[in-house]
C-alpha cells in the first residue's frame, strides 16, 4: 500500500464536524491568604463590634431627653422640655444675688501734711517733689505766693498753701517741708507743704462731698477721702493755683 492510499483512509475515518481541541489548563497556583485587619483583631471568644445596618431614629419630641439646642446650644445643659419655667424661677429666687461688677477704678493721690492735717492732690498733676530751695520774693505779689524759684533753669512761682487756705502761718519751714512741683497745663508751679506723706489710692465710693465748717473755702476742696481709719482733705488744685486772690487783698 502506497502513501497516498494510507492518507485517504485516514481522512475517511475522521468525524464530519470535529470540535476544536481544548487548550491544556494552566497549572493551579497555591492559594495564598492575606491577613486583613479584621483577621488580626479577631480572637477566639471575642466578638467584634459591628456597625449598625441603619441609623437609629431620633427620639420623638416630648420624650425624656434634653431640650433642643436649635435656639441656644447651652439650653441643653440646663433643662429638659418637661421641666417647667416655674421651677427654674424658684431655684433662682433661692440664690444669693451676685455682687455688682467691680467697675470702681481707684484714683491715685499724693498725700501730704499741712498744719497737722492730712491733705491730698491728684497724683497725675504732680511732676516731682523737691526740698525747699532758695525762694526769691516778688514785690507786690499776692500773699499766698511765697516767691519764685529756679529748678534746673526753669523759673516758677511758689504757693504757700497755709496762707492760701487760711491756715496759721509758721515762722520757718521745718526740715521735712517740701515743694511739690505741679503742672496744670499752663506751666509748672511749686506748692509748699509741711511734709509729704505717701501715695494714696482711693475708690470713688470712699470719696464724700466736703462738709461745711472745715475752715477752708469750699471752692478749694473736691471732697473728703477715707482710707481705713484715715481721712484726707482732697484739694481742688486747679482752683487753688489758677484762681489767686484779688490784688486788693493782703500784700507783702
Spatial arrangement of strands, main beta sheet:
8-1-2-11-10-9
Number of strands: 11
Largest sheet: 6 strands, mixed
CATH topology of the domain at 107-242: OB fold (Dihydrolipoamide Acetyltransferase, E2P)
**What is the beta-strand fraction?**
25-35%
CATH C-level name of the domain at 107-242? Mainly Beta
Cα separation of the termini: 174 Å
Instruction: Find the CATH superfamily of the domain at 107-242.
Output: CheA-289, Domain 4
**Count of alpha/pi helices:** 5
- Helix/strand-derived category reads alpha+beta
Helix fraction bin: 10-25%
Any low-confidence stretches, pLDDT <50, length ≥5?
Answer: 34-49, 62-80, 82-96, 243-252
Q: Average pLDDT, to the nearest integer?
A: 70
Order of helices and strands: HHHEEEEEHEEEEEEH
Task: Please state the CA-atom Rg, rounded to the nearest Å.
Answer: 51 Å
Q: Tell me the CATH architecture of the domain at 107-242.
A: Beta Barrel
Q: Give the CA-based shape.
A: elongated
Task: Give structural notes.
The chain has 252 residues and is α+β, with helices and mostly antiparallel strands. It has a domain at 107-242: CheA-289, Domain 4 (OB fold (Dihydrolipoamide Acetyltransferase, E2P)). Helix content is 14%, strand content 27%. It has 5 helices and 11 strands, in the order αααβββββαββββββα. The strands form 2 sheets. The protein has a 6-stranded mixed beta sheet, with no helix packed on it. Strand 10 (221-227) and strand 11 (230-235) form a beta hairpin. The longest helix has 11 residues, at 3-13. The chain starts with a helix and ends in a 10-residue tail after the last helix.
Amino acid at each position: 500500500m502506497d502513501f497516498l492510499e494510507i492518507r485517504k483512509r485516514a481522512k475517511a475515518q475522521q468525524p464530519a464536524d470535529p470540535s476544536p481541541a481544548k487548550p491544556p489548563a494552566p497549572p493551579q497556583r497555591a492559594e495564598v491568604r492575606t491577613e486583613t485587619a479584621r483577621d488580626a483583631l479577631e480572637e477566639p471568644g471575642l466578638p467584634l463590634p459591628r456597625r449598625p445596618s441603619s441609623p437609629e431614629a431620633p427620639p420623638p419630641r416630648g420624650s425624656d431627653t434634653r431640650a433642643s439646642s436649635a435656639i441656644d446650644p447651652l439650653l441643653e445643659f440646663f433643662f429638659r422640655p418637661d421641666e417647667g419655667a416655674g421651677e427654674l424661677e424658684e431655684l433662682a429666687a433661692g440664690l444669693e444675688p451676685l455682687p455688682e461688677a467691680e467697675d470702681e477704678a481707684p484714683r491715685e493721690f499724693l498725700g501730704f501734711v499741712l498744719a497737722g492735717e492730712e491733705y491730698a492732690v491728684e497724683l497725675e498733676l504732680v511732676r516731682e517733689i523737691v526740698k525747699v530751695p532758695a525762694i526769691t520774693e516778688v514785690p507786690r505779689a499776692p500773699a499766698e505766693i511765697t516767691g519764685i524759684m529756679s529748678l534746673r533753669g526753669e523759673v516758677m512761682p511758689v504757693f504757700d498753701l497755709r496762707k492760701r487756705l487760711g491756715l496759721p502761718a509758721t515762722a520757718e519751714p521745718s526740715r521735712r517741708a517740701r515743694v511739690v512741683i505741679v503742672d496744670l497745663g499752663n506751666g509748672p508751679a511749686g506748692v509748699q507743704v509741711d511734709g509729704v506723706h505717701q501715695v494714696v489710692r482711693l475708690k470713688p465710693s470712699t470719696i464724700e462731698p466736703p462738709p461745711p465748717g472745715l475752715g477752708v473755702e469750699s471752692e478749694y476742696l473736691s471732697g473728703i477721702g477715707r482710707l481705713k481709719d484715715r481721712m484726707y482733705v482732697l484739694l481742688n488744685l486747679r482752683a487753688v493755683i489758677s484762681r489767686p486772690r484779688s490784688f486788693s487783698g493782703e500784700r507783702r
